[in-house]
Amino acid sequence: MNRSSTVNIVSVILAAGASSRFNGSKITAKIENDQSVLGHSIATLNQLSEVANIATPVVILGAHINDDVMAITANTLRMINPHWQLGLSSSVKQAVTYAIEVKADALLLVLADQVALSVDDYVGLIEAYLQNGKTSCSYYHQDVGVPAIFIADDFTDLLSINGDKGAKTVLKRHAHQHSLNILPMENAQFDIDTPADLALWLDQQ
Known about the structure:
Elements (H helix, E strand, L loop, with lengths): L8 E7 L14 E3 L2 E2 H16 L5 E4 L5 H6 L4 E4 L7 H14 L4 E6 L7 H14 L2 E6 L2 E9 L3 H4 L9 H9 L3 E5 L10 H10 L1
């Protein structure tokens, strides 16, 4: 990847949810080598920032803020979502607001619990975006989804979503208009929602 790229892409890790199906704080659950779900996501995005020459990630916290979470995010720019009870859209809006404040060209949205994603997965997404400057997203479970890179022209639409909805409605609109880069990403299908998901992931390691 061209490390001299001057495109201003900011990455935001969404980690404010209640993890209600996990019955606890899934972002602090250990997944490999004593590394937590959230710690793995931060480490991967920090590595991406070096490889792709983009800003280091921001993490949005909310429902679970304790000593473990603060330790995991000690060297990461943190934002607290006081409205996390309103659902995923509240974190998306906060991420977009941050991107606007720093005058970003594009916003890379990441879910903290997609534990299988690698730096190469994210690099592929950024390269797709850099080819034509279009909104770019992953494709798994026969559908578009995150991680995804949203262009600045998407920010107004992202600020209008409500409830426990992410940014998929914006992606689907782009797909309908044939203005979306879609990147098959098998690793994106793995996320940790329940203790059974975690057990299955640990068995595979």
